[in-house]
């Protein structure tokens, strides 16, 4: 959403694609049993969770410290390149162990070994989750772009958007850390 507000449709859609590919990695891990290894070690689970939170805070600080954007609407130095947009969304999703937990706990409820290859079933159900998630994420992109266009019209927001966007990243990162600390 933050990238959609800041950079528009293209960044939002690329971010959705990065999230989808990250989700595909989680589905693959669940299909081949790798998720169970991750979930069997509280240390590894926590390390991945904190790495994801650190990455979000890093992105937030990087955004806040970037040079101010150009108010003309042209791409500024603080705008991310398309590859970086995709990569960052992919890494954030990949470093979310709760996604692994979701697929390991959720999908097996709908798998029936009597119905055929279990791995194939995991990929089919996982593909449906990706499609539903993409539809949901693209709805958020639409809302964020609409809100972003209105915010961009306000001179005050143009001057402070990098702080707003950075604070959102940091807030999500800190929430991730705190949810891990308080969930024990």
From TrEMBL:
A Pfam family this chain is assigned to: LysE
Assigned GO CC terms: plasma membrane
Primary site of residence: membrane
Transmembrane parts of this sequence: 12-37, 43-61, 122-143, 163-182
Location within or outside the cell: Cell membrane
Keyword Lyase: no
Domain of life: Bacteria
Keywords per UniProt: Cell membrane, Membrane, Transmembrane, Transmembrane helix
Entry membrane topology: Multi-pass membrane protein
Molecular function (Gene Ontology), one example: amino acid transmembrane transporter activity
Alphabetized InterPro entries for the sequence: LeuE-type
Protein's name in the database: LysE family translocator
UniProt organism field: Desulfobulbus oligotrophicus
């Amino acid at each position: 959403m933050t990238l959609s507000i800041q950079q528009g449709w293209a960044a939002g859609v690329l971010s959705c694609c990065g999230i989808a590919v990250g989700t595909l990695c989680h589905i693959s891990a669940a299909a081949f049993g790798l998720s169970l290894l991750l979930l069997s070690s509280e240390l590894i689970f926590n390390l991945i969770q904190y790495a994801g939170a650190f990455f979000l805070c890093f992105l937030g600080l990087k955004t806040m410290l970037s040079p101010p954007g150009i108010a003309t609407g042209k791409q500024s130095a603080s705008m991310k390149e398309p590859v970086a947009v995709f990569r960052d969304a992919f890494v954030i999703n990949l470093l979310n162990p709760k996604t692994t937990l979701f697929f390991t706990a959720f999908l097996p409820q709908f798998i029936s070994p009597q119905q055929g290859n279990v791995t194939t079933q995991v990929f089919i159900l996982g593909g449906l989750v990706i499609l539903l998630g993409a539809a949901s994420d693209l709805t958020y992109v639409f809302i964020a772009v609409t809100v972003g266009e209105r915010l961009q019209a306000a001179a005050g927001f143009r001057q402070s958007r990098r702080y707003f966007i950075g604070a959102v990243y940091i807030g999500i990162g800190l929430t991730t850390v705190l949810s891990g600390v308080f969930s024990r």
